[in-house]
């Protein structure tokens, strides 16, 4: 897996790609340790499949958590607006 690949990216995305690469390499190394002792051909396939699945899962989990955070922020904003509306109308009475 020491093969170098060429990829054309936007300059402003370079750091994100490097962080993604570090994450994938870390995950691959974790699975290498888990599958140590199996046949090399099977080992490589399992490692890559499990690393891809793990990275995809983490991405989906982050998206879900981000969606929850966005929803929480929206609900808090609505709650604040309702409280402000309520206080304005109760003061007028």
Low-pLDDT windows of residues: none
Taken from the alpha-carbon principal axes, the silhouette is elongated
Tally of separate domains: 1
> Could you give a short account of the major beta sheet?
none
Helix-strand pattern, N to C?
HH
Tell me the number of helical segments per DSSP (H or I, 4 or more residues long): 2
Report the radius of gyration as a whole number of Å.
23 Å
Strand content: under 5%
* Helix content, binned percent: over 70%
Average pLDDT confidence is 85
Described by its quaternary structure, the protein is: single chain
* Distance from first to last alpha carbon: 74 Å
Secondary-structure-based class equals mainly alpha
Q: Work out the number of β strands.
A: 0
Model description:
There is one protein chain. By secondary structure, this protein is mostly helical. The protein has one domain (14-92). The protein is 80% helix and 0% strand. It has 2 helices and no strands. It has helices at residues 14-34, 40-92. α1 (14-34) packs across α2 (40-92).
